[in-house]
Design brief:
A hairpin with a 5-residue loop joins strand 18 and strand 19. The protein has 2 domains: 243 residues, Nucleotidyltransferase, domain 5, CATH 3.30.420; 216 residues, ATPase, nucleotide binding domain (Nucleotidyltransferase, domain 5), CATH 3.30.420. It is of the alpha/beta class. The mean pLDDT is 95. The protein is 38% helix and 21% strand.
């Protein structure tokens, strides 16, 4: 049995072909695209058609690579960038470009939610989550207040991966995992939260699909695509999920103790839980996962975007960047970097900026700046990890993904700062692999073969032991002090209006 896994990201869409029996990735293809240009600061939008065009292109490329074996494809799974707002009219046509997860234009609307429901704590008591600018709910309120004509035209509200599923099948669905990222789902009960809907508009809920189990398939691949791609008339499309939910499956993060950290343009840190994990402070997002359990998550907006700025500043190759950092001692000679160059989500600083603290004549040097940047973005993730521990989620192993995980020095810095062994996967496909694995699981269930998902991931997800890094005890106290300094400086600057 062969499975297509599709990962719809902010910069590109990637499709892979997974051989379910052997675990081999038989083919892959990627198509890049950009954002809508000319928008005001904070506005990040994309035309949904670029996603479906990219899916069509990459699927066709993969099918060409596997030739006659395309007849063995039984299922398709889709991973999608979370939180994006896709609105359709009565003709099922897209009304306007999708506002994306990284759109921070909705700060005012988040404030309105907080004022109505008793601040962050009131929102968390109501639904399990506070309201952040990246979430879908404030985007809908923004649309109502700024584009009333477009708001009145809404017949359906979907998330990016739901829209791709709709394009694939003609069916509109939302599963618990991605739905929890709208900010409108009561994550404890896995049901839509009516007071939040009604605050935006009393008629809004009727335009949302029912939130359903992630184990269900969406439907069969629609006839036109099936014929164009030359696939079987029994090809099913699974529920899919958000990119973090699919990344969890693709890294085998479906049992307590395992945590995934993505070192990409932005950073995410998440772990499986068999019960809801809600954070009274709102730092940890209380999401559901795409296995009908839960996925507490922290997201930071500045990871490789910051290290790439430094690399480009000195016109270094990646090898030169890593070499400069390796040659600089831990702690960067007292230079500390607060990496909020794109604002920040955790902690919630949408208007934040970067800060270099502790500059001296001794550390005002390219290597120290590079190391302080890599340490700073990792300390930002460690701030979230500390909240996990305080909430009772304690990892024993961290599985690293994303471009930053290819750096050996970064893997060691992460192990030292997190205080937990880190390791990469043999496959770098991440969310695309997770989407394919979830689709194979759904297909097996639909055929009456009730197979535990852990049995599938244990077979198909493997670790690259050559990348394993163990915490260096000599750096434990140094990084603990740096994390306290990092957190305290952030809080003090924010309290005085400088962040």
């Amino acid at each position: 049995m062969l499975i297509l896994g599709i990962d719809n990201g902010t910069q590109s869409t990637k499709t892979v072909v997974l051989d379910f029996e052997t675990g081999a990735i038989l083919a892959s293809a990627q198509a890049a695209y950009g954002l809508v240009g000319g928008l005001p600061p904070g506005h990040m939008e994309q035309e949904p058609q670029v996603w479906t065009d990219a899916v069509d292109k990459t699927v066709r490329e993969c099918l060409e690579k596997i030739g006659a074996r395309k007849s063995e494809i039984k299922a398709i799974g889709v991973s999608g960038q979370q939180h994006g707002l896709v609105v359709l009219d009565k003709k099922n046509e897209v009304i306007r470009p999708a506002k994306l997860w990284c759109d921070t234009s909705t700060v005012e609307q988040c404030g309105q939610f907080a004022e109505e429901f008793g601040g962050a704590r009131g929102l968390i008591e109501l639904s399990g989550n506070t309201m952040l600018p990246g979430y879908t709910a404030p985007k809908i309120l923004w649309l109502k207040q700024n584009e009333p004509g477009n708001f009145k035209s809404i017949n359906s509200v979907l998330l990016p991966h739901d829209y791709i599923n709709f394009w694939l099948t003609g069916e509109k669905r939302m599963e618990y995992g991605d739905a929890s990222g709208t900010g409108l789902l009561d994550v404890r009960k896995r049901k839509w939260c009516k007071p939040l809907f009604n605050f935006i508009d009393p008629g809004l809920m009727e335009h949302f699909p029912k939130a359903e189990s992630s184990r269900k398939v969406v439907g069969l691949l629609r006839d036109t695509l099936r014929k164009e791609w030359g696939l079987s008339d029994s090809t099913v499309v699974s529920s899919g999920g958000g990119d973090n939910m699919m990344g969890a499956i693709g890294t085998g993060n479906i049992e307590p103790g395992v945590m995934t950290v993505s070192l990409g343009t932005s950073g995410t840190l998440y772990s499986y839980s068999d019960k809801p994990v809600t954070d009274p402070e709102g730092d940890v997002a209380a999401f559901c996962d795409s296995t009908d359990a839960w996925l507490p998550l922290v997201c930071t907006m500045n990871v490789t975007v910051a290290t790439e700025q430094v690399r480009n500043l000195f016109n270094w190759s990646h090898a030169q960047l890593n070499g400069a950092i390796s040659a600089t001692s831990a702690g960067a000679g007292g230079l500390l970097f607060l990496p909020y160059i794109n604002g920040e989500r955790t902690p919630n600083l949408p208007k934040g900026t970067g800060v270099l603290h502790g500059l001296t004549t001794e550390n005002m040097h390219p290597g120290h700046l590079a190391r302080a940047t890599m340490e700073g973005v990792t300390l930002g993730l460690a701030y979230g990890l500390n909240r996990f521990r305080e909430l009772g989620v304690k990892p024993t192993e961290i599985r690293l993904t994303g471009g930053g995980s290819q750096s050996g020095v970064w893997r060691q810095i992460a192990a030292d700062i997190f205080g937990v062994p880190t390791v990469c996967l043999t496959s770098s496909e991440g969310a695309a692999l997770g989407a394919a694995i979830q689709a194979s699981w759904a297909c097996e269930n639909a055929l009456g073969h009730i197979t535990p998902l852990s049995e599938i991931t244990n077979r198909l997800v493997s670790l690259d032991e050559s990348t394993r890094a163990l915490p260096n005890p000599a750096n434990k106290s140094l990084y603990a002090d740096l994390l306290r300094h990092h957190t305290d400086l952030t809080k003090r600057l924010h309290a005085n209006g400088y962040l």
